[in-house]
Design goal:
It contains 20 helices and five strands. It has 507 residues and is of the alpha/beta class. A hairpin with a 5-residue loop joins strand 1 and strand 2. The longest helix has 36 residues.
Length: 507
C-alpha cells in the first residue's frame, strides 16, 4: 500500500489509520515505522529486484532513458529506465533513482550510469540511450560509447518555444520585429487575464456562476502556461477560447479586472490553436510506453509538416506563426531520415510493416536506410558462416606447401561475402513486397508471426522497436518522486526514495 499509493511510512503511526485497522481486525498487529523502513520494504525491494534481474537476463537487447530531477529539498536525482521485449510484450522497468552527490559533470554522470548498468549486467545489451538536450548527459552517454538519441518530445517543445518567442525576456522594444512584438503582447495579456482569475476569489466565483447561467454542463477553470511544461501555452489558449464568452461578461462587470483581449486578438488566438494542436497530439502519441514509438517519428513529423501546410490562418500574425512553426520544425528535424547521426529512426521506420518506404520524404534517405539494414542482415548471416570459414582456413594452414592455398582462401572469402549480401538483399525485397499493414495493427505480433519466414530480419527489427521516442518514461518517474518526497516526508533517506520509486513502478 505504501509503495503503490505513495503513502508516507508514518501512516502506521496515525491514530485514524490505527483505529480503522483495529475495527477491521483487532488481532492484527500493525508493524512499526522502524520495521517498515528497515525490514519489510528492503525485503520487498530485494524480492522485486530479483524478478527484474531475471527478466533482464532473458532480454537480448535493452534501451535506456535517463533524466535528472531536483527534489523539494533541492537534492538532484538521476533516474534510469529500461525497455525491452518479453516475447511479444514491451516491458518497462525503472532501474534506479540515485541521489547525485557531486557536480553534474559528464564524467560523474558517466560513472553513475556505467556502474548501474553493470550492476544489472545489461551494459553490453544497450542499443540506445534516450535523453533530453542536456549537454552533460549527452556527453556522458557518448563517453560510454553508446548510441545517443534525442527526446523527440523535447525537440517538439523547443520548436513551439522558438516559434512563439517564449523566452525569459518578455520585453518588447522598438527593435523587436513587429510580428514578434505583437505576439509577445498578446501572450502577455493572456497570462495576465489567467493570473487575475487564479488570484481573485470574486472573479473566479463569478466566472463559475456565469458558466452555469450560460448552460455549461462542465465547469472549466483557466490554465496558466508554464514554459517548462510541454504544450502549456496551447492549453492556456484553448481554455481561453472555450471560456471567451463568460470571461468577457465577467471582466466587464469587475472594475479591478485587467484589459480584455480585443476582437482581432481573439481572432489571432483562434488561428493559433489549430496550428499548435498537432504538436500536442504528437507529444501524446510518442510518449507512450505500451507500444513501439520510434518507428512513428518520421511519418508523424512528415504528417505534422503536411498538417501545418494545410492550415489557412485568417490573420497576418497567424500566418507569421505558421511560417515560424514550419521553419523550426524543418530545422530541428532536417536530418531525422538520414543515416549520419541517428540512423535508428529511419531503420525502425523501414522495419515497421505499416510504414516501410512510403513513410519517407526523400527517396535517397529511404534507399540509404534499406542499404544499411541489408548490411546488418548480411553481417548476421556472415556470423553464421564464420565457423565454416574457420574450418577451411585450418585445412589451408595445415598444408603450407600447397601453392593453391592463396587462391582457395580468397575465393572462399568472396563466395561467403557474396552469398550473405545476396541473401540479405533477397530477404529485404521479400519483406518490402509484402502488403502494408493497417495502422492499428500490432507490430510486435506481426514480427512474431513472421519470425521464421523473415529470420534474421526479425532480430534487427525487434532491436530497434524497443527504443522509446522520448525520455518521458524517466520524467514520469519524477512525477512519482515528487509525490514521495512531499512535505509530509521530506526526511526520507535517498536509499528509501530509490526503493519506493523502484517498487511503485515495478511491482
Amino acid at each position: 500500500m505504501i509503495a503503490e499509493d505513495l503513502q508516507p511510512l508514518s501512516i502506521v503511526e496515525n491514530a485514524g489509520f490505527r483505529n480503522m485497522i483495529e475495527l477491521l481486525d483487532s488481532r492484527y498487529e500493525i508493524p512499526s515505522r522502524r520495521v517498515l523502513g528497515r525490514t519489510i520494504i528492503p525485503n520487498m525491494f530485494s524480492f522485486v529486484q530479483n524478478k527484474v534481474k531475471v527478466s533482464l537476463n532473458n532480454a537480448e537487447h535493452v534501451a535506456i532513458t535517463t533524466d535528472i530531477w531536483t527534489s523539494i529539498n533541492t537534492d538532484s536525482y538521476l533516474t534510469l529506465t529500461t525497455h525491452f521485449l518479453s516475447e511479444t510484450v514491451l516491458k518497462t522497468f525503472v532501474l534506479c533513482t540515485k541521489k547525485l552527490e557531486s557536480n553534474q559533470t559528464s564524467l560523474y554522470l558517466l560513472e553513475i550510469m556505467t556502474n548501474e548498468l553493470n550492476n544489472w549486467n545489461i551494459f553490453h545489451k544497450v542499443v540506445a540511450v534516450v535523453t533530453d538536450g542536456g549537454a552533460n548527459t549527452k556527453a556522458a552517454v557518448r563517453l560510454m560509447n553508446l548510441s545517443h538519441l534525442p527526446c523527440i518530445a523535447h525537440k517538439l517543445n523547443l520548436v513551439v518555444q522558438k516559434a512563439l518567442q517564449l523566452s525569459d525576456d518578455e520585453g518588447v522594444g522598438p527593435e523587436n520585429n513587429s510580428d514578434e512584438g505583437d505576439l509577445k503582447l498578446i501572450l502577455k495579456k493572456c497570462r495576465i487575464i489567467v493570473g487575475f482569475f487564479k488570484r481573485s476569489e470574486v472573479g473566479n466565483r463569478l466566472l463559475v456562476e456565469k458558466q452555469k447561467q450560460l448552460g455549461s454542463s462542465t465547469i472549466l477553470k483557466l490554465k496558466q502556461d508554464i514554459r517548462t511544461r510541454w504544450n502549456s501555452t496551447f492549453f492556456m489558449l484553448e481554455r481561453l477560447i472555450k471560456l471567451k464568452e463568460p470571461i468577457t461578461i465577467v471582466m466587464i462587470t469587475l472594475k479591478e479586472a485587467p484589459s480584455n483581449l480585443e476582437s482581432q486578438e481573439w481572432s489571432i488566438i483562434e488561428d493559433m490553436i489549430p496550428l499548435l494542436r498537432p504538436f500536442n497530439n504528437l507529444t501524446v502519441e510518442l510518449s507512450a510506453e505500451q507500444y513501439p514509438t520510434i518507428s512513428k517519428v518520421i511519418p508523424l513529423i512528415r504528417g505534422l509538416q503536411f498538417s501545418l501546410n494545410s492550415k489557412s490562418p485568417k490573420t497576418r500574425l497567424g500566418s507569421f506563426i505558421k511560417g515560424k512553426l514550419l521553419e523550426h520544425t524543418t530545422k530541428r528535424f532536417d536530418g531525422i531520415e538520414k543515416q549520419a547521426l541517428t540512423p535508428q529512426f529511419s531503420r525502425a521506420t523501414l522495419l515497421d510493416p505499416r510504414c516501410k518506404k512510403v513513410a519517407f520524404g526523400v527517396t535517397e534517405n529511404e534507399n540509404d536506410a534499406e542499404a544499411s539494414v541489408v548490411s546488418e542482415i548480411a553481417s548476421l548471416m556472415g556470423n553464421v558462416s564464420n565457423t565454416e570459414q574457420a574450418t577451411v582456413q585450418i585445412d589451408v594452414i595445415e598444408d603450407d606447401d600447397n601453392v593453391w592455398n592463396f587462391l582457395q582462401s580468397k575465393v572462399t572469402t568472396v563466395q561467403s561475402q557474396t552469398t550473405s549480401t545476396s541473401s540479405a538483399t533477397a530477404l529485404m525485397k521479400q519483406y518490402l513486397n509484402m502488403p502494408h499493414l493497417d495502422l492499428k495493427c500490432d507490430v510486435l505480433t506481426y514480427w512474431n508471426d513472421h519470425k521464421v519466414v523473415l529470420a534474421p530480419l526479425i532480430n534487427i527489427a525487434l532491436k530497434y522497436c524497443i527504443i522509446p521516442a522520448t525520455s518521458v518514461p524517466s520524467e514520469r518517474i519524477f512525477s512519482k518522486a515528487g509525490q514521495i518526497l512531499s512535505a509530509r516526508r521530506n526526511r526520507l533517506l535517498p536509499k528509501n526514495v530509490d526503493m519506493l520509486i523502484f517498487l511503485n513502478k515495478n511491482l
